[in-house]
Design goal:
There is one protein chain. The protein is of the alpha+beta class and 122 residues long. It has one domain: Thrombin, subunit H (Beta Barrel), CATH 2.40.10. 23% of the residues lie in helices and 39% in strands. It contains 2 helices and 6 strands; from the N terminus they run ββββββαα. It has helices at 92-105, 107-120, and strands spanning 14-19, 27-34, 38-43, 52-58, 65-76, 81-89. It has a 6-stranded antiparallel beta barrel.
């Protein structure tokens, strides 16, 4: 399988809530992995492809920050679902906060992705 991603994806858990803008109800979820372009969302409330979501990130020692994304794929399991979400709007300050979270709490992920990506460049 050919990898289509242009940025490394970090396998780190990030607590979040998500909602469809036309619906005021928020649902708890988890970013299972994340890059600067998108994330893999795991949650209880099923979604549909092409749905636009407001995503609220709960990072330690930070205020809640919001991004907007679009669902690009869905996998439905018996207890939960997963969805690939492409960021349509994410502030640089949130990207920095996510990367700092990864560096502070999951430095092994940065080292693994950094070396993996740079070794495949040769």
């Amino acid at each position: 399988m050919i990898e289509k991603r242009t940025l490394p994806r970090f396998k780190v858990p990030i607590k979040l809530e998500y909602q469809i803008p036309s619906n005021n109800q928020k649902f708890l979820g988890l970013a299972v992995d994340i890059s600067m372009k998108g994330l893999r969302l795991q949650g209880q409330k099923p979604l549909e492809e092409d749905e636009v979501l407001d995503i609220f990130f709960y990072l330690p020692n930070r205020p809640v920050q919001e991004a907007v994304g679009r669902v690009v794929w869905i996998r439905d399991y018996s207890q939960y679902f997963q969805a690939g979400v492409y960021f349509l709007n994410i502030k640089d300050s949130l990207k920095e906060a996510i990367f700092k979270y990864i560096l502070d709490y999951f430095p092994q992920e940065v080292q693994a992705r950094w070396w993996k990506e740079s070794n495949t460049e040769r």
